[in-house]
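Fold this complex.
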Amino acid sequence: MVEIGKYKIQHDIDGCIGCGACAAISNNWKMVDIKGEEKAKEVKIEFDDSELENNKEAAESCPVEVIHIIEKNTGKKIV
Ligand code: SF4
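Structure:
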């Protein structure tokens, strides 16, 4: 199996209120229109250490806490 990244994103898109905070902080998030509602969508679902800080900042900026980062090999929730 090819290792794509050490961490993965979990995003509860139903809970996303479309505030845009994550996309303002990180290039790994963009705003999209889903059935007339603005929602955030991750560009890459998996990433390595070099992108961890930026993705953490984006996750921590979410006012409704619907972005989580999981360390894949331990299952540990970083955010
Ligand atoms: S910060 Fe949270 S609520 Fe705001 S757009 Fe991003 S995922 Fe959605």
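Residues 7-71 form a domain with the Alpha-Beta Plaits fold (CATH 3.30.70.20).
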